[in-house]
Amino acid sequence: MHNKLDIIIIGAGPIGLAAGIEAKRKGLRYVILDKGCLVNSIFNYPLNMTFFSTADRLEIGGIPFTSVNAKPRRAEALEYYRRVAEAEQLHVNLFEEVTGVVTQENGDYQVLTSKGAYTTVHIIVAIGFYGIPNLLHVPGEELPKVRHYYFDPHYFYKQKVLVVGANNSSADVALETWRKGAEVTMVVREPTLGRIKYWTKPDLENRIEEGSIKAYFQAGITEIREHEVDIETLDGIVTIKNDFVMAMTGYQPDFSFLEKIGVQLTNDYKRYPLYNRETMETNMKNVFLAGVICGGMDTHVWFIENSREHATLIVDHIAAKETAGA
């Protein structure tokens, strides 16, 4: 590999891989860096997770994604993206965390990592949002029984499980753990359930209506203790026995990383990064954003299916500049 790269792509998720494919096809020198495994966010999804999107909407690089199900599952997605990386022979360095970005006098960037350093002209930041959970900010949240990630329902057999939240992940956790023998209670801040996959929502509504799953609406946790949880409801404080609290309250991008490398964010709660929507270039020259990171705290705006085009848009822009001798 040459001493200086054309592009360093930070993040080996689907959009980062898509950018790598485009860079390779344009003959650009690149490397993809990730602090975790390949498509790390998808790896950390629940074991039985089903995508809302159909397989064709998850494809990258024009490589077909065939699935035995109408909507692919986590295991199929892992297989697909791994095979794409292998078939395209992408330059992917895994478990190599980017620790800093230094602007050099000539405008190039030195990218520092846990394993070394690279010099590059352009940077594409394609990190996801699954690494930092939104906290409850209540006493007792630090207890080991409080989980912000969920993997396998078997673990919760015969346990009293409190699920916080009202969207897809909350619905999946509540239904899956209940079906594996857990006693499930839900705490929902809003008066109704939220954005839930259309094939899941009626199932959960029926379980709540029949009393199989207890749900407190317009409610919130006020304190978590080793064997109990206090819930503030419309009728006052309710204390229930509890073994595990599953806080499915969503996740947020690593804003501190963006700020550390120099990308500007809005000062409001949304923390939108500043970038040119036509080129995806940030306030930093030759530093681009791709994927879900573009939405700030609005993590439901960008998905694989509608941000795949970021990879093509950015790399086409870079390739055009290189051709023009910029």
For the residues shown, what is the average pLDDT? Answer: 94
Structural class determined from secondary elements: alpha/beta
As a whole number of angstroms, the C-alpha radius of gyration is: 22 Å
**Terminal Cα separation, in Å?**
22 Å
Q: What's the count of strands?
A: 17
Give the overall silhouette.
Answer: elongated
Report the order of strands and helices.
EHEHHEEEEEEEHEHEEEEEEHEH
- Low-pLDDT parts are none
Task: Report on the biggest sheet.
Answer: 7 strands, mixed
* Alpha plus pi helix count: 7
| Percent of residues in helices | 10-25%
- Which band does the percent of strand residues land in? 15-25%
List the main descriptive attributes of the protein structure presented here:
single chain, 326 residues, alpha/beta, seven-stranded mixed beta sheet, five-stranded parallel beta sheet, 7 helices, elongated
Provide a compact summary of the structure:
This protein has 326 residues and is an alpha/beta fold. The protein is built from seven helices and 17 strands. The chain has helices at residues 14-25, 40-43, 74-87, 168-179, 201-210, 255-261, 304-324; strands spanning 4-10, 30-33, 92-93, 98-103, 109-113, 117-125, 132-133, 146-147, 160-164, 183-188, 214-217, 220-224, 228-233, 236-241, 244-247, 251-252, 287-289.
